[in-house]
Amino acid sequence: MEWQFARSFSPGIVILALTAHGLLAQEAAASIRGVVTDRSGRPLRDAIVSISDITKSSSRKIITSDRGDYEFVALAPADTFSLTVEAAGFRREVRSGIVLEAWQQRQMNLQLVAGDVTGRVTAAGAASLMQPEDAAVEALVDERKVKDLPPDKPQLWQLSGLVPNVLQFGLKLLF
Q: Domains of the chain, with CATH numbers?
């Protein structure tokens, strides 16, 4: 009787182990998406958008939709990326120094300037964590700063004081 139980129980353990392994292997991937437009705000279809993972020396290319949309998914967090956009009759634009956080969905709308194809527009440095669509500000708070908060009942509102460009208006949450 015990042997039959172990025999029927074994496939269940194997399936559970394979499923758990797959869940543990998933990364906290990030994404970048946006719309490519010209200076007047019209979407540019068939623009070539390339993303290069500088950290891993890899790259991908996609072509914008009829609405000028593009999206890169499953990007490794904490890696440094460079985004390049090219379209016929427009100057190539490069955004470099892009670092994504885990699960971040970065919106990067790009506006191309008409002109000489050999011209190039480059924006270097870290992209802002401000999301203009909803005025959300994202930031990581250093563990040391959190430990420096008053030890007796640290309040959630005190964390907002650790983030640059966040104003406090006397809001105190009591938990």
A: 30-131 (2.60.40.1120), 139-175 (no CATH)
